[in-house]
Design goal:
The chain has helices spanning 44-51, 74-80, 96-102, 116-128, 144-157, 174-189, 202-208, 226-229, 234-239; strands at residues 4-15, 18-29, 33-37, 59-64, 67-68, 81-84, 162-166, 194-198, 211-216, 219-224, 243-246, 255-258. By secondary structure, it is α/β, with parallel strands linked by helices. The chain is globular, with a radius of gyration of 19 Å.
């Protein structure tokens, strides 16, 4: 049986006076690629941020590798789990290399110099994301897709085996969406990383994941495989809208298109 990276039991989250998550229970297995889907306001990003302790739940338990998340220091979490936010439009006056080196913060201190291990980790991350030719470029000169790749590289430089990604393809053009999805597949299948990604695009979720969690109004309404998600009317229930299934050459699972057949 696959060991769990995250064990989430009866997790509830409140932000202000609003209840965002209600008794959420999910297991994320080691080596899984888990996609969290659901309509706007379902609590997807809130759940993701709980896994990195950016947000603290009101009740329930959350374990990382069998230990309560609250027993870890934030630096200990960062050595195992990296977080990639949504595509940022913020400009940073750093070179790509220097920005990716910032990802080594869990391993650095103000009183130590950058080590060979740090430099090797940055080189590995730049190579894996095909960013070596960009390492001397300023972040302000990059496109949205290139900037997203840099954020992923910085997360990889942290050296952990778990990657959390919030809407990794949002606002990207089709070319860069394909590149980011291909990178996600490579990290999962070739680098054996555990990934948890939030996405509103069902086709993207199905294309890269082997585990899908569906949220509606802060509650789990689906927890299973992509194949099961597309079977019957489960997907229609998650998004409260009908979907067409369209066979696609070269793919086992169909593409889904919202709306009734014409």
């Amino acid at each position: 049986m696959t060991a769990s990276i995250f064990s989430i039991r009866d997790l509830s989250v409140q932000l202000g006076n609003a209840d965002i998550l209600h008794s959420v229970s999910v297991e994320v297995g080691e080596g899984a690629c888990t996609a969290i889907i659901g309509p706007n306001g379902a609590g997807k990003t809130t759940l993701l941020k709980c896994l990195n302790r950016i947000l603290t739940p009101a009740s329930g338990t959350l374990e990382l590798r069998g230990k309560p998340l609250g027993t870890y220091t934030q630096k200990d979490i960062a050595r195992q789990v990296a977080y990639v936010p949504q595509v940022s439009t913020t400009s940073f006056e750093f070179t790509v290399y220097d920005f990716v080196m910032l990802g080594r913060y869990p391993h650095l201190s103000p009183f130590t110099a950058v080590s060979k291990e740090d430099k090797d980790a940055v080189l590995y991350a730049l190579t894996l994301t095909n960013l070596l030719p960009f390492q001397d470029r300023c972040m302000t000169t990059l496109s949205g897709g290139e900037r997203q790749a840099v954020f992923i590289a910085a997360a990889l430089a942290q050296g952990g085996s778990v990657l959390l990604m919030d809407e990794p393809t949002t606002y990207l053009d089709y070319k860069h969406q394909i590149e980011v999805l291909a990178l996600i597949k490579r990290l999962h299948r070739e680098e054996n990383m555990t990934l948890v990604l939030v996405t509103h695009d069902v086709n993207h979720a199905v294309a890269v994941s082997n585990h899908v969690v569906g949220l509606v109004e802060g509650r789990v309404c689906f927890d299973g495989t992509p194949e099961t998600l597309l079977d019957g009317d489960t997907l229609d229930t998650v998004f409260d809208t009908p979907f067409q299934r369209v066979p696609c050459a070269g793919q086992t699972l169909p593409l889904v298109i919202p709306g009734d057949p014409a």
